[in-house]
Amino acid sequence: MPGITAARPDEDSDAELRVLQRVVLPNDKDLDTLPLYIDSDTGKGGLDAENGRKQALTAPGRKLHPEDILSRSSVRVRPGERLSFGSYFNAFPASYWRRWTTVESVILRVGTVGEGTVVVYKSNARGAAQRVESRQVTGTESTVFDLTLAPFGDGGWYWFDLIADSDGMQLDSADWSAVSDKPAGSVTLGVTTFNRPDYCLNTIKAIQTDDGVREILDELIIVDQGNQKVSDEAGFDDVAKAMGSQLRIIVQGNLGGSGGFARNMSEAVKEGRSDYVMLLDDDIIVETEGILRAVAFADMCRKPTIVGGHMFDMYNKSVLNAYAEVVNQYKFRWGPVDGLANHDFALEGLRSSSILHRRWDADYNGWWMCLIPTRIIREIGLSLPVFIKWDDAEYSLRARSVGYATVSLPGAAVWHVSWADKDDSVDWQAYFHERNRLIATLLHSPYAKGGRILRESMNTDVKHLFSMQYYPQKARLMALRDVLQGPEKLHESLPAMMPKLRALRSEYSDSVVKQDPGAFPDPHMRKPPKKPISTKSPSLASLVPWAAKTILKQTVLPVAPESRENPQLVVANQDSKWWVLSKLDSAVVSNADGTGASWYQRDPKKVRSMLAEAAVLKAQLFAEWEQLSARYREALPEITSMESWQRTFDENPGK
């Protein structure tokens, strides 16, 4: 069933079925990703519908066998065994289709060979499972189930299990479909890259070999902003020839993610062919079925909708970064819904994770995989010109302000390098975190003076300074000054700010990373503390005296002279909390990915001057908030317009 539409079986009418979601298996038979496709953890379950207790949904299962995968759509079920497709990629997220689309019922078609049983289940928003229907099958058979979406108002999934008789059976293919007269929309895929030609080439190859994606693809546009070109990568010429006119490479100067994705959006709109543009990060592995699902979902939505895909950990492939992400508009802080981050499907499958059966509505979706209708782009413009950070969240908030929702769709996903091995809040990106969060707040906060944002910002300033992280704090002060200047120079700053920030690093030892463990003197403390330094945060009861003591140390007390000759401690990244580092005069601190370390050195003079400057700038921002907010909101249509962005593209042609 590879096509987008297929004639409904056993009917004489001319009605067509639109395939919404195909049952798929991993191309490479990767055991690490297999739990996302098949759930063998059949001894676990959701909540019992009557008493709310945990229950097993099926009989105890056995380990998965990658060798039983026969093709992208086919798998062998061993004699007497059971396979459940109640998995992340193959269960049907019924509540999302119920809430956002015009689809009222779905048709499950299961093609099998051999003797056994097909059992269909559903769950509710609490994770309670119910057996819907079962059919005995024999020989080569196509089994069809008509399934209503009516009871899925708050949550719930459909899925099916296969139970083989004594001779075993085989799944030939299966899909979830709906009767529809809507034509399939077409899509432009947009990738923005900076010096990741190997990843990009693999993405192109994945698209090139997926016939279903090629059927709805207008163009795959790679915006190459680096000096290691995708077109120079070995094997590019062959895949480019195979893609033909469906692949286009655009070379431009480095305008960051927002500049690259704005170019993807702009080109798709100018070409005028595509119903959607899907933005994809450059350092990903894409499950191409998710592209088809996102387009099918968007086609069926009641109104134009941004459809996002989830992000799994590239190096721990069964771990989902976040199931839904929201913006706390009082603090103006982004992040996953509580309890929905870093879920490992290898440890706890979909059926046994009751929290994943509720429908969770997102405020935004990361641009690692995000489908945007070109109609929305024409109405609200392109990305905010902010280089990186907050461009994706701001865009969804902007869309929502005129009535367009963002849906993070389960079953559409990519694998991406995890945030666990990054801490970009302490490098040059600290500037963009601070500036762009404040700009987004000025644009979209419903609260006077941005709610709690200025207090949140000041708290972060204090944490950086007490942690001896003077470089990111310098970057944050630069960000504050630039916010106060207004929106007029945002485009102008795109190509210039990152080189400026990187050049500043040499002035701050906390930003100079050395990879050689022997590059620093041995740690030495003349008078070690009587008790080991605790990594626990201060208790609420001790917070006030602790804070007074810490402020005195950081701003007034002199630095131990010997701490300039030798670091007092070597601190692991996971222990480098501000309440730990604030107790020291110097420390060698490892970076998040473990590839190097920096020497942090306390400087009371820097603390006093930076703290004072932060207070002055925030007082100015507080006083001018309403005026600045009005300026940014008034300028938004202009700075995100096709015309403004085209001028920036023309001024930064790349090499």
TrEMBL record:
Q: Name one Pfam family in it.
A: Glft2_N
Q: Which UniProt keywords apply?
A: Glycosyltransferase, Transferase
- Positions of the UniProt region annotated as Disordered: 42-63, 516-537
Question: Which residues does the UniProt record annotate as the domain Galactofuranosyltransferase GlfT2 N-terminal?
Answer: 66-178
Biological pathway: Cell wall biogenesis; cell wall polysaccharide biosynthesis
Under PANTHER family, the record lists: GALACTOFURANOSYLTRANSFERASE GLFT2, RHAMNOSYLTRANSFERASE WBBL
Judged by the first EC level, this protein's enzyme class is transferase
Q: Domain named Galactofuranosyltransferase-2 C-terminal: which ranges?
A: 453-650
Which ranges form a coiled coil?
none
Q: Which GO terms describe its molecular function?
A: glycosyltransferase activity
Gene3D superfamilies hit by this protein: 3.90.550.60
Q: What is this protein called?
A: Glycosyltransferase
Write the Enzyme Commission number(s) for this entry.
2.4.-.-
Q: Which family does it belong to?
A: Belongs to the glycosyltransferase 2 family.
